[in-house]
């Protein structure tokens, strides 16, 4: 992330593509992304004419996890053009891929689209993607607003996690109390047993005359 930030800061003076443009004008497409997409579509039609959209998305997400962002982008395109798959999770993942490749326009547009799919409040990682991309496009007001939204979601999540964790604390205390009571009862039983005198042995029968 630091290296990406330094690289972006080094290009702050260069002309950027306005974020209002559609993704087809993004730097990734200008650098040959369309050709990569065409190759991916040809590969799909040759090897698997009717692939599962989820399979395409899973492959794209796996490539992202491996840091192979350039290879992941055509797979996202194939999945999206297949008639579905444009989930908030998928768009946020592609936003992160665009960001890693220095395409901050594409990163911001996907983050905004993901935010709309999330509904009220959105999701923390979506807000972070949006804020980070906006920052590198010098849209600092948008970035600040998204960072604050993400921070609020993070804090709310932490509070919810702490509240959820307290129920475990409560039940653990109950278990400890019950176990302590059982140990005390066992101790009392042992003491009572030790205090009870042993029965006298039966008298031996007198010998016959």
What's the SSE blueprint?
Blueprint (H helix, E strand, L loop, with lengths): L1 H9 L16 H21 L5 H13 L3 H13 L6 H13 L3 H15 L5 H13 L3 H56 L14
Helix pairs in contact: 2-4, 3-4, 4-5, 5-6, 5-7, 6-7, 7-8
Task: Write a concise keyword list for the protein shown above.
209 residues; mainly alpha; Serine Threonine Protein Phosphatase 5, Tetratricopeptide repeat; TPR-like_helical_dom_sf
Describe this structure in words.
The protein has 8 helices and no strands. The protein has a single domain, classed as Tetratricopeptide repeat domain (Serine Threonine Protein Phosphatase 5, Tetratricopeptide repeat). The protein is elongated and about 115 Å long. α7 (124-136) packs antiparallel against α8 (140-195). The protein has helices spanning 2-10, 27-47, 53-65, 69-81, 88-100, 104-118, 124-136, 140-195.
Give a brief outline of the structure:
The protein has helices at 2-10, 27-47, 53-65, 69-81, 88-100, 104-118, 124-136, 140-195. By secondary structure, the chain is an all-alpha fold.
**CATH domain class name:** Mainly Alpha
**Largest beta-sheet details:** none
Which residues sit in consecutive blocks of at least 5 with pLDDT less than 50? 1-25, 30-34
- End-to-end separation in angstroms reads 108 Å
Query: What's the CATH architecture name?
Result: Alpha Horseshoe
Order of helices and strands: HHHHHHHH
**What count of structural domains?**
1
Shape: elongated
Mean pLDDT: 75
- CATH fold label: Serine Threonine Protein Phosphatase 5, Tetratricopeptide repeat
Radius of gyration: 33 Å
Structural class: mainly alpha
Specify the number of helices: 8
**Helical proportion, percent range:** over 70%
**Percent of residues in beta strands:** under 5%
| Number of E strands | 0
Question: In CATH, what is the homologous superfamily?
Answer: Tetratricopeptide repeat domain
InterPro entries: TPR-like_helical_dom_sf (IPR011990)
């Amino acid at each position: 992330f630091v290296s990406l930030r330094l690289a972006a800061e080094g290009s702050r003076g260069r002309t950027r593509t306005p974020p209002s443009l559609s993704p087809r004008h993004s730097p990734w497409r200008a650098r040959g992304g369309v050709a990569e997409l065409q190759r991916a579509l040809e590969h799909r039609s040759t090897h698997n004419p009717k692939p599962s959209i989820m399979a395409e998305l899973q492959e794209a997400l796996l490539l992202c996890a491996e840091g192979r962002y350039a290879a992941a982008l055509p797979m996202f395109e194939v999945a999206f053009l297949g008639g579905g798959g444009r989930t908030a999770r998928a768009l946020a993942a592609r936003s992160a891929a665009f960001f890693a490749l220095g395409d901050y326009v594409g990163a911001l547009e996907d983050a905004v689209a993901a935010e709309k799919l999330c509904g009220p409040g959105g999701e923390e990682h979506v807000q972070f993607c949006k804020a980070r991309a906006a920052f590198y496009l010098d849209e600092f007001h948008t970035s600040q607003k998204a960072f604050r939204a993400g921070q609020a979601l993070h804090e709310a999540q932490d509070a919810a996690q702490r509240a959820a964790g307290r129920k475990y604390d409560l039940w653990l205390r109950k278990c400890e109390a019950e176990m302590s009571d059982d140990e005390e009862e066992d101790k009392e039983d042992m003491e009572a047993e030790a205090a009870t005198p042993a029965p006298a042995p039966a008298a031996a029968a007198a010998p016959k005359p």
